[in-house]
Amino acid sequence: MTFFDDFVIDSLDDLINLIEDVGFVPFFENEIEGFSIEEHIAPGHWYDDTSNGFWDAWEWKGPAIKKAKCAYGKFLKGKAMYISAKWFPDFANYRRDGYDFDARYEDGLASFDDNTLYELLNANAPIISKSLKRLGDYRKGGRRGFDSSISRLQKLCYVTVSDFIYATDKSGNEYGWGLAEYSTPEKFFGRKFTDKVYKRTPEESYERLFKHFKKILPGIDDKLIDRIIK
Question: Could you list the residue range(s) of the whole structural domain that residue 57 is in?
Fold first, then answer.
């Protein structure tokens, strides 16, 4: 299957099957036409800024992450993307350049602020964003830079979104926006990740990723694929 096939995402199961089949599924449209949920979702499942809009694609996030046991985070130029458990170890290995976080920090490749947030998150994962901010004193008059650090840690694949948690009313009904629950891939995937992530060199992982993207995005310029991976 490729992203240029004629298909429609009409249910949570369709989304999960897509993630498992192609491995990489961006949420929003991007520089590659057709390479997103937004461009393939069936009418009635996407908020379209009208009174008839639906939020299904957003409400499917948590269930898709848990049922597909996939990675989700800001992996594509600051935008969200699902990555299957099969492909995430190679993707993380390349993005991390073979470093676990402690080694990255010791070699001066991670900032003090990123290290502070990573250690706090790692010690308490899984943890929702609101609780993480409170523990780290990320507030007006307190520590700053939460959004920048959490985005960077996702980009480098040291942090993933493990669920979305909704507030509930007295009757137990969910309401409002789901709050991101963060974890590390090591804790979320366990040995299925830790046994594989550094199995290859970053260069070998890159080659595997590049060949796979050529398969699911046929005809796309090599430079565009390189930008997705990097």
Answer: 12-224
